[in-house]
UniProtKB/TrEMBL annotation:
UniProt keywords, alphabetically: ATP-binding, Nucleotide-binding, Transport
UniProt GO molecular function: ATP binding; ATP hydrolysis activity
InterPro entries found in the cross-reference section: ABC_Transporter_VariousFunc, ATPase_AAA_core, P-loop_NTPase
Pfam families tied to this protein: AAA_21
The name this protein goes by in its record: ATPase AAA-type core domain-containing protein
PANTHER family, sorted: ABC TRANSPORTER ATP-BINDING PROTEIN ALBC-RELATED (PTHR42939)
Domain ATPase AAA-type core as annotated: residue spans: 49-110
Amino acid sequence: IGYIPGEIHMYDTLSGRDHLKFQASLQGGVDSKYVKKLAFRLQVDLNKPIKSLSHGNKQKIAIIAAFMHEPKLLILDEPTTGLDPLIQREFYDLVSEVNQAGSTFFISSHVLPEVERMCHRVGILKEGRLIVTEEIDTLKKRAVRSLEIQFAREVKTADLQGIKGVRELQVEGNIAHCRVEGSLDQLIKKISKYEVLNLITQEADLEQ
């Protein structure tokens, strides 16, 4: 089993390399070439002491520790925390490759785009209870997004009411804020009657 905890704790006096050697000894040894390959892909210097590393680089060490013994099951809690966008993309590629090679992942995340990128099926927990399991495509249809729409002229709240999926509608002058559950199709058709200067959408959060 490979595991990345939500809060990472390491021996600060060790280097990244020594930390991984210690972890490898608990697994009965690992392929050192694979460890070097992972470090190269994640762009982390294993010779630096743990105490000198940023949170993001500590996260990279934790990722290597979880993957280096090529486990068939990986449990990852918010695995991309602290990673910059380029390394996040590399991590997604790594997950895809390992998954295609036959490994199974359990990933904890509240960020829908990340879940969509890595997962096929989703379970949602609320207050410690599993309340629903869905295929990712089904979940996307139920996702809630926050939108800001800027019109060329002032609009009235009544002009935008009664649209399927739209809730928490607030209109001030030429700017409207709302939340939309599921498809944006009906909203887009409605606002297409007006001159729209800008539309900003915030990706859905699984906590919603």
